[in-house]
Write a structure and sequence with these properties.
Rossmann fold; two-stranded parallel sheet
């Protein structure tokens, strides 16, 4: 049976790599992109619907799929307004999960972040933690929340903060062993691989997957 997948965030680093892999994957007959910007030169198996992701309800009719991959996320540098930041990192994934539940999409996979905690004093971690809680409360059969550490890869736009942390972690990476492995930087390509593995697994239990386990799943 051929599958249909929806991707939110296909223009970002992880989402774009995920899209490439799903295009090549013969298990997928259709790929639905819901985005703010159009991507050129995609094959016919990919359909694109462009609009404001802060109002996902306008795309409700396109929520017909076997799984949804949510790779939405912003940064403090790109979105300094905390209200807008929360609407993106919390609002979009929660709205997407709600629509999945309404339309009986059985698999929901979302990229969160290491340290997510709804009770954290850190705004970023608290926002991600609140998102995770709301997503899990939807009760979608196959719900996977990925908590990567620093995501690295070939980005279209430079991120100075990421470059600094990558430089630091390059030296300390070998020292991060045991319980500290989850703090190692992780490649976006690895996350994309793990998302596809999870989407095609038979495990129906909802899971929160830390960065070191994302590496294991993708290997």
């Amino acid at each position: 049976m051929k599958k249909t997948a929806i991707i939110l965030g296909a223009t970002g680093l992880t989402g774009s790599l995920l899209l490439e892999k799903l295009i090549e994957d013969t298990r997928y007959e259709q790929i639905v992109l819901i985005s703010r910007t159009y991507i050129d030169n995609l094959p016919s198996k990919v359909s694109q619907h462009i609009g404001d992701l802060l109002d996902l309800s306008q795309f409700s009719e396109f929520f017909k799929a076997d799984e949804l991959f949510c790779c939405i996320g912003t940064t403090k540098d790109k979105t300094s307004d905390t209200d807008i930041y929360r609407k993106i990192d919390y609002g979009i994934p929660v709205a997407a999960a709600s629509l999945c539940k309404q339309h009986n999409i059985p698999t929901f996979i979302v990229v969160s972040a290491l340290g997510a905690d709804k009770n954290s004093r850190v705004f970023y971690n608290r926002t991600k933690g609140a998102m995770e809680t709301e997503v899990l409360e939807q009760g979608i059969d196959h719900t996977y929340i990925l908590r990567p550490s620093l995501i690295v890869g070939q980005r279209k736009e430079p991120r100075m903060g990421e470059k600094i942390w990558k430089f630091i972690l390059t030296f300390f990476q070998p020292l991060l062993q045991g319980k500290l492995k989850k703090y190692r930087m992780i490649y976006a390509d690895t996350i994309a691989k793990a998302m596809i593995v999870l989407a095609n697994s038979t495990d129906k239990n909802s899971q929160i997957i830390e960065s070191d386990n994302i590496e294991i799943i993708a290997s």
